[in-house]
Amino acid sequence: MIFNGQPMSKLSSAAKAELRNQKLGFIYQFHHLLPDFTALENVAMPLLIGKKKPAEINSRALEMLKAVGLEHRANHRPSELSGGERQRVAIARALVNNPRLVLADEPTGNLDARNADSIFQLLGELNRLQGTAFLVVTHDLQLAKRMSRQLEMRDGRLTALIRTEPDGGGVMAMPLSLLIGLRFSRGRRRGGMVSLISVISTIGIALGVAVLIVGLSAMNGFERELNNRILAVVPHGEIEAVDQPWTNWQEALDNVQKVPGIAAAAPYINFTGLVESGANLRAIQVKGVNPQQEQRLSALPSFVQDDAWSNFKAGEQQIIIGKGVACGCAESEAGGLGVDYDPKFESRA
C-alpha cells in the first residue's frame, strides 16, 4: 500500500503513528467519543497527542466545532448530545489535524434519514472547502450514488461503477483492473482502431494488477499477522444501557446466558482517562473483566508477567498496567494514571 508516494511497509512504527495522527482522519459508524470529556476536549485529543501548543489546540478545536455547527455545544459531554451531534463531533475530531484523507466506515449507519442526509452534506462541504479526500464505506446505495466516484465490492472483487449516461442516470460494473487497462488503451488508437500494442497493454495491465494484488496478499499474510501481533481472539458482544444507571442488569444477564451459543456473560465497567508519560499525554480506555471467565475463554492471561493475574479478585478494583504497552513509553519512564472514583469505594492498584 502506498500513501502520499510512500510505501507503508517501509515506514517505522513511529512514522506510521505520525502518519495516522497528522495525515489521516477516521470516522466510524459509532462516534467513539470519550464519555468523560467535553465535545471540545474530544475534538482536541488528536492535537494533544500530536504535541501542539495549548493555544493552538484550543483555537483549532473551536474552529472545527464551528465548522460542523456545534460551537455552542463545546462544553457539553457526549451524554448531553444527540446522535447527530455526536457524529458531528466525531467528524470535527477526524478533521482537526487537516488530514489529506479521511477514512469513513458507515458514517451514517446509526443515524435516521434526516441526520444522515445532514452528515453527508457536511462531508461534501468539507471536501469542497478544505480539499480533504473522503473514502467512505457504506451499504446505503442512495448515499453511494451521490459520491463523485463509486467502487463496489462484489463476490470478493473490487468493481468500478462507470456512469453510462451524461446525467449519471445509469451505471455499469467493470473490474477495476480492466478499467485501468481500457483507459490506458484509449490513448493508443490509430485511425479509429485499437492497435495490437493497445490490446497487449490492456491485457498486460489487467493481469499485472491481478498478480500485484495476489502478491501483496501473500506478503502481508494473515497468518503472519496472527503470529506476530494478535495475542488472543475472543468473539464477544456488548450491551450498553441508553438511560443510566442500569439497575436491572442482572435480569438481562440471566437472559443472555440462556441464549444458545453464548459461552459466558458478565457485567463490566469501563472508564476513560489520560496517561502521563513525561511531557506527553495519551487518552486511554480501561475495561474491567471477570478474571475467572477471562482465564477460561481467552489465552490473554498467559501473556501477563509474574503471574499477576492469579492475584486478581472480583470487586477489589485492581488494575494491571503493562510495561510500555498502554502508553508507549520505555520501562524506565514514569507513568501516572489519574482516575476519578466514588469516595465510598476503596481505591486499590
UniProtKB/TrEMBL annotation:
TM region(s), chain numbering: 193-219
GO molecular function: ATP binding; ATP hydrolysis activity; transmembrane transporter activity
InterPro entries found in the cross-reference section: ABC_transporter-like_ATP-bd (IPR003439), ABC_transporter-like_CS (IPR017871), ABC_transpr_LolD-like (IPR015854), MacB-like_ATP-bd (IPR017911), MacB_PCD (IPR025857), P-loop_NTPase (IPR027417)
Residue stretches making up the ABC transporter domain: 3-180
GO BP field: lipoprotein localization to outer membrane; protein localization to outer membrane
UniProt-listed PROSITE patterns: ABC_TRANSPORTER_1 (PS00211), ABC_TRANSPORTER_2 (PS50893)
GO cellular component: a single term: plasma membrane
Keyword list, A-Z: ATP-binding, Membrane, Nucleotide-binding, Transmembrane, Transmembrane helix, Transport
Pfam families associated with the record: ABC_tran, MacB_PCD
Superkingdom as given in the UniProt entry: Bacteria
PANTHER family assigned: IMPORT ATP-BINDING PROTEIN (PTHR24220), LIPOPROTEIN-RELEASING SYSTEM ATP-BINDING PROTEIN LOLD (PTHR24220:SF689)
Family named by the database record: Belongs to the ABC transporter superfamily.
Designated name of the protein: ABC transporter domain-containing protein
